[in-house]
Write a structure and sequence with these properties.
10 strands; 302 residues; alpha/beta; two-stranded antiparallel ribbon
Length: 302
């Protein structure tokens, strides 16, 4: 399966704005949410695998990929509201399984807090929200006017960004670099990214206030949760998995070895097997049936 094979884009209107998405398969609804400055293509492999047994929605968040930006400020609650409005627009009328990578994980948690009856489970992939530490590349964007200067599109910047996401450099393909460069050249990309970054943190790292509030509220929910990390993540360190297990002790967890910020790509087959096992358990009411190895801690990373 090639991540370089781009699916035909589809569009739906959400809050009066064009949103790019992809929908395939039949079964329980699954919604795939990408990270900051990324697009639905980070879930291409998982979308195609999951569509064998689920109704899978991959969506470009507003202002990213092929979706037009929001008119309201870029905050975590606003992005969560967008997800709810998207579910309304595409007619998802039963609880959906939310799978979120990085920022997408934080958005998924915020959706669950705001509208718990709409969420069947949470699969959080190297999610934002479990620690202050974040790559210096994102922290510098919070500085004015340096942030905008750092976002000037270039092939070198696109290559460095892609290289930071993967432990295995083989995944840093020319196709991925070209796609990242295309996204960076969109007229609203820098504004959306800077506004999002400055809401979430400062040059010191991720804001503790929104993290503490969000995690406190998520811990009160009775929603099956699976949290995974790559042990070589350069964006959000794998030690955040220990924090996640402490804050959400009922959640399944797993640490992918020799893996960066996107285990859904670097370990696609294993990630898919474990995700389907989790989703199936959540559907059947057996979310605590964790496979061997699903309680590994980040501290075990070699």
């Amino acid at each position: 399966m090639s991540a370089g094979t781009a699916p035909r884009p589809r569009h739906v209107t959400v809050d009066g704005r064009r949103v790019c998405h992809r929908v395939d398969g039949d079964g329980p609804p699954v919604v795939l949410l990408h990270g900051i400055a990324r697009s639905q293509r980070d879930f291409t492999e998982q979308h195609e695998l999951l569509a064998r047994g689920f109704r899978v929605h991959s969506v470009d968040l507003p202002g990213y990929g092929g979706s037009l930006p929001m008119t309201e400020p870029y905050t975590l609650p606003a992005l969560a509201r967008f997800v709810g409005h998207y579910l309304d627009a595409v007619g998802v009328d039963r609880p959906a399984h939310l799978v979120g990578n990085s920022l997408g994980g934080a958005i998924a948690m915020r959706v669950a807090v705001a509208e718990p009856d709409r969420v069947a489970s949470l699969a959080l992939v190297n999610p934002a929200g479990f620690g202050q530490e974040v790559t210096i590349a994102l922290r510098l964007l919070a500085l004015r006017p340096l942030g905008r200067l750092l976002l000037r599109p270039s092939r070198a910047l696109a290559r460095r960004t892609e290289r930071a996401l993967f432990h295995d450099p083989a995944f840093v393909t020319e196709e991925r670099i070209e796609h990242a460069l295309t996204l960076a050249r969109q007229p609203y990309t820098a504004r959306v990214l800077l506004e999002t970054v400055r809401h979430l943190g400062t040059v010191k790292g991720v804001h503790p206030a929104w993290r503490e509030e969000l995690l406190t509220e998520v811990a009160r929910l009775d929603i099956p949760t699976w949290i995974v990390w790559g042990d070589r993540d350069l964006i959000l360190p794998a030690t955040h998995l220990d924090a996640a297990r402490a804050r959400l002790p009922r959640a399944r967890t797993h640490l992918f070895r020799d893996c960066g910020h996107m285990p859904q790509i670097e370990h696609a087959e294993e990630f898919h097997r474990r995700l389907v096992d989790f989703l199936t358990a959540a559907e059947t009411g057996e979310p605590d049936r964790a496979p061997a190895g699903d309680r590994a801690t980040a501290g075990e990373a070699g």
